[in-house]
Amino acid sequence: MLVAVAALAALSPGAAAVPSAASVVTRVVDGDTIALSGGTTVRLVQIDAPEAGTGECYSRAAARELRRLLPVGASVGLQADARLGRVDRYGRLLRYVWVGRLNVNVALVRRGAASVWFYGGVRGRHAGQLLYAAGLARRERRGLWGACETAWNPYDAVRANHKGSARPAAPGRLAVRGRCDPAYPTVCIPSPPPDLDCRDVPYRRFKVIAPDPHLFDGEGDGLGCEGSRR
Fold this sequence. Notes:
Layout: H1 2-11, E1 25-30, E2 33-36, E3 41-44, E4 47-48, H2 59-69, E5 77-79, E6 93-99, E7 102-103, H3 104-110, E8 115-116, H4 127-139, H5 144-147, E9 148-150, E10 160-162, H6 173-176, E11 206-207, E12 223-224
Parallel strand pairs: 3-6
Antiparallel strand pairs: 1-2, 2-3, 4-8, 5-6, 6-7, 9-10, 11-12
Protein backbone atom coordinates (compact mmCIF):
# COMPACT_ATOMS: atom_id res chain seq x y z
CA MET A 1 0.00 0.00 0.00
CA LEU A 2 2.83 2.39 0.86
CA VAL A 3 4.45 1.77 -2.53
CA ALA A 4 1.20 2.55 -4.33
CA VAL A 5 0.69 5.79 -2.42
CA ALA A 6 4.29 6.83 -3.08
CA ALA A 7 3.82 6.18 -6.79
CA LEU A 8 0.73 8.37 -6.88
CA ALA A 9 2.60 11.13 -5.08
CA ALA A 10 5.41 11.00 -7.61
CA LEU A 11 2.90 11.42 -10.46
CA SER A 12 1.17 14.45 -8.95
CA PRO A 13 3.19 17.69 -9.26
CA GLY A 14 1.52 19.24 -6.23
CA ALA A 15 1.75 16.23 -3.96
CA ALA A 16 4.43 15.49 -1.41
CA ALA A 17 6.34 12.24 -1.67
CA VAL A 18 5.62 9.72 1.06
CA PRO A 19 8.46 8.78 3.47
CA SER A 20 9.56 5.16 3.61
CA ALA A 21 11.37 3.25 6.33
CA ALA A 22 14.72 3.89 4.59
CA SER A 23 14.14 7.66 4.20
CA VAL A 24 15.55 8.89 7.51
CA VAL A 25 18.24 11.55 7.48
CA THR A 26 21.52 10.42 9.05
CA ARG A 27 23.74 13.29 7.88
CA VAL A 28 23.72 16.53 5.92
CA VAL A 29 26.77 16.28 3.68
CA ASP A 30 26.66 19.84 2.38
CA GLY A 31 24.14 22.44 1.23
CA ASP A 32 22.56 20.22 -1.42
CA THR A 33 23.37 16.62 -0.43
CA ILE A 34 22.11 14.36 2.36
CA ALA A 35 22.77 10.81 3.57
CA LEU A 36 19.91 8.50 4.53
CA SER A 37 19.59 5.35 6.59
CA GLY A 38 20.65 2.31 4.61
CA GLY A 39 23.62 4.15 3.11
CA THR A 40 21.76 6.05 0.38
CA THR A 41 23.06 9.48 -0.60
CA VAL A 42 20.70 11.98 -2.21
CA ARG A 43 21.67 14.99 -4.30
CA LEU A 44 18.83 17.52 -4.29
CA VAL A 45 18.07 18.01 -7.95
CA GLN A 46 17.76 21.26 -9.99
CA ILE A 47 19.56 23.33 -7.33
CA ASP A 48 23.16 24.04 -6.39
CA ALA A 49 24.69 25.34 -3.17
CA PRO A 50 28.25 26.65 -2.68
CA GLU A 51 30.68 23.75 -2.44
CA ALA A 52 31.58 22.60 1.07
CA GLY A 53 35.23 22.44 2.05
CA THR A 54 36.36 24.94 -0.60
CA GLY A 55 36.09 28.16 1.36
CA GLU A 56 33.48 29.35 -1.13
CA CYS A 57 31.26 32.12 0.19
CA TYR A 58 28.16 30.85 2.03
CA SER A 59 29.14 27.17 1.82
CA ARG A 60 28.95 26.59 5.59
CA ALA A 61 25.81 28.69 5.97
CA ALA A 62 24.10 26.72 3.19
CA ALA A 63 24.81 23.44 4.98
CA ARG A 64 23.49 24.90 8.26
CA GLU A 65 20.28 25.94 6.52
CA LEU A 66 19.75 22.44 5.16
CA ARG A 67 20.35 21.00 8.65
CA ARG A 68 17.61 23.27 10.00
CA LEU A 69 15.20 21.88 7.43
CA LEU A 70 16.46 18.29 7.67
CA PRO A 71 17.84 17.52 11.13
CA VAL A 72 19.27 14.07 11.79
CA GLY A 73 16.39 11.66 12.33
CA ALA A 74 13.94 13.51 10.12
CA SER A 75 11.75 11.36 7.88
CA VAL A 76 11.68 12.56 4.28
CA GLY A 77 9.93 11.70 1.05
CA LEU A 78 11.84 11.40 -2.21
CA GLN A 79 10.42 12.40 -5.58
CA ALA A 80 12.05 11.47 -8.88
CA ASP A 81 11.54 13.48 -12.07
CA ALA A 82 10.95 11.67 -15.35
CA ARG A 83 12.55 14.59 -17.23
CA LEU A 84 15.83 14.21 -15.38
CA GLY A 85 18.38 11.54 -14.58
CA ARG A 86 17.75 9.29 -11.59
CA VAL A 87 21.36 8.75 -10.46
CA ASP A 88 24.45 10.92 -11.00
CA ARG A 89 27.97 9.76 -11.87
CA TYR A 90 28.81 9.49 -8.16
CA GLY A 91 25.96 7.05 -7.53
CA ARG A 92 23.81 9.60 -5.68
CA LEU A 93 20.05 9.56 -6.13
CA LEU A 94 18.78 12.70 -7.87
CA ARG A 95 15.57 13.69 -6.14
CA TYR A 96 13.31 16.39 -4.82
CA VAL A 97 13.19 15.98 -1.05
CA TRP A 98 9.98 16.57 0.88
CA VAL A 99 9.18 17.04 4.55
CA GLY A 100 5.44 16.72 4.75
CA ARG A 101 4.20 19.07 2.03
CA LEU A 102 7.37 21.19 1.99
CA ASN A 103 9.56 20.85 -1.09
CA VAL A 104 13.00 21.28 0.49
CA ASN A 105 14.68 22.01 -2.86
CA VAL A 106 12.40 24.99 -3.41
CA ALA A 107 12.66 26.08 0.24
CA LEU A 108 16.46 26.26 0.03
CA VAL A 109 16.30 28.46 -3.06
CA ARG A 110 13.64 30.67 -1.46
CA ARG A 111 15.89 31.20 1.57
CA GLY A 112 18.89 32.06 -0.58
CA ALA A 113 20.82 29.00 0.60
CA ALA A 114 21.05 27.62 -2.94
CA SER A 115 20.63 28.75 -6.52
CA VAL A 116 18.80 27.11 -9.42
CA TRP A 117 20.79 24.79 -11.69
CA PHE A 118 19.07 23.33 -14.74
CA TYR A 119 21.89 20.89 -15.44
CA GLY A 120 22.30 20.27 -19.16
CA GLY A 121 19.65 22.93 -19.81
CA VAL A 122 16.79 20.64 -18.77
CA ARG A 123 13.95 22.13 -16.72
CA GLY A 124 12.22 19.69 -14.41
CA ARG A 125 8.67 19.54 -13.14
CA HIS A 126 9.22 22.17 -10.44
CA ALA A 127 11.21 24.61 -12.60
CA GLY A 128 8.59 27.36 -12.37
CA GLN A 129 8.51 27.23 -8.57
CA LEU A 130 12.29 27.25 -8.40
CA LEU A 131 12.63 30.28 -10.67
CA TYR A 132 9.97 32.17 -8.72
CA ALA A 133 11.69 31.33 -5.42
CA ALA A 134 15.04 32.49 -6.82
CA GLY A 135 13.50 35.75 -7.97
CA LEU A 136 12.21 36.48 -4.48
CA ALA A 137 15.54 35.61 -2.86
CA ARG A 138 17.49 37.79 -5.28
CA ARG A 139 15.19 40.80 -4.93
CA GLU A 140 15.33 40.62 -1.14
CA ARG A 141 19.08 39.83 -1.08
CA ARG A 142 18.54 36.73 1.00
CA GLY A 143 21.35 34.34 1.86
CA LEU A 144 24.11 34.10 -0.73
CA TRP A 145 22.55 36.91 -2.80
CA GLY A 146 23.27 39.41 -0.05
CA ALA A 147 26.32 37.88 1.60
CA CYS A 148 28.34 37.10 -1.54
CA GLU A 149 29.14 38.26 -5.04
CA THR A 150 26.92 35.79 -6.87
CA ALA A 151 26.18 35.73 -10.59
CA TRP A 152 22.69 34.60 -11.62
CA ASN A 153 22.93 31.77 -14.13
CA PRO A 154 20.40 28.93 -13.77
CA TYR A 155 22.21 26.91 -16.44
CA ASP A 156 25.46 26.54 -14.54
CA ALA A 157 26.76 25.66 -11.09
CA VAL A 158 26.53 28.52 -8.60
CA ARG A 159 29.64 30.64 -8.07
CA ALA A 160 29.50 32.60 -4.82
CA ASN A 161 32.63 34.69 -4.23
CA HIS A 162 33.43 36.59 -1.08
CA LYS A 163 32.70 40.27 -1.58
CA GLY A 164 35.68 42.18 -2.85
CA SER A 165 37.34 39.08 -4.29
CA ALA A 166 34.99 38.14 -7.13
CA ARG A 167 36.68 36.43 -10.07
CA PRO A 168 35.16 35.93 -13.52
CA ALA A 169 33.56 32.55 -14.01
CA ALA A 170 35.68 30.27 -16.17
CA PRO A 171 34.38 30.36 -19.75
CA GLY A 172 33.71 27.18 -21.65
CA ARG A 173 31.71 25.12 -19.14
CA LEU A 174 28.42 26.11 -20.70
CA ALA A 175 29.90 26.03 -24.18
CA VAL A 176 30.26 22.26 -23.82
CA ARG A 177 26.51 22.05 -23.34
CA GLY A 178 25.75 24.52 -26.16
CA ARG A 179 24.35 27.18 -23.83
CA CYS A 180 26.53 30.18 -24.77
CA ASP A 181 24.66 32.81 -26.75
CA PRO A 182 26.54 33.73 -29.98
CA ALA A 183 25.79 37.42 -29.37
CA TYR A 184 28.56 37.35 -26.72
CA PRO A 185 31.42 35.47 -28.48
CA THR A 186 34.25 36.24 -26.03
CA VAL A 187 32.44 35.09 -22.88
CA CYS A 188 29.89 32.42 -22.01
CA ILE A 189 26.44 33.78 -21.22
CA PRO A 190 23.30 31.68 -21.83
CA SER A 191 20.46 32.80 -24.03
CA PRO A 192 17.21 33.97 -22.41
CA PRO A 193 15.15 32.99 -20.59
CA PRO A 194 15.70 34.25 -18.00
CA ASP A 195 16.60 37.80 -18.95
CA LEU A 196 19.90 38.81 -17.35
CA ASP A 197 21.40 42.20 -16.59
CA CYS A 198 24.97 43.28 -15.86
CA ARG A 199 24.80 42.61 -12.13
CA ASP A 200 23.92 38.99 -12.90
CA VAL A 201 27.11 38.19 -14.85
CA PRO A 202 30.80 38.42 -13.81
CA TYR A 203 32.04 39.87 -17.12
CA ARG A 204 32.78 43.52 -18.05
CA ARG A 205 33.60 45.19 -21.39
CA PHE A 206 32.95 42.08 -23.46
CA LYS A 207 32.17 41.97 -27.17
CA VAL A 208 28.50 42.21 -28.15
CA ILE A 209 27.02 41.33 -31.54
CA ALA A 210 23.43 42.18 -32.51
CA PRO A 211 20.72 41.34 -31.62
CA ASP A 212 22.06 41.46 -28.00
CA PRO A 213 19.11 39.54 -26.41
CA HIS A 214 20.00 40.65 -22.86
CA LEU A 215 20.54 44.31 -23.91
CA PHE A 216 23.97 44.47 -22.29
CA ASP A 217 25.20 47.03 -24.87
CA GLY A 218 23.11 50.05 -23.92
CA GLU A 219 25.42 52.48 -25.73
CA GLY A 220 25.49 50.52 -28.98
CA ASP A 221 29.29 50.57 -29.21
CA GLY A 222 29.76 46.81 -29.35
CA LEU A 223 30.83 46.42 -25.70
CA GLY A 224 28.69 45.01 -22.92
CA CYS A 225 28.54 46.07 -19.28
CA GLU A 226 31.22 48.75 -19.47
CA GLY A 227 31.97 49.05 -15.77
CA SER A 228 28.25 48.82 -14.99
CA ARG A 229 26.65 46.84 -12.20
CA ARG A 230 23.10 47.92 -12.86
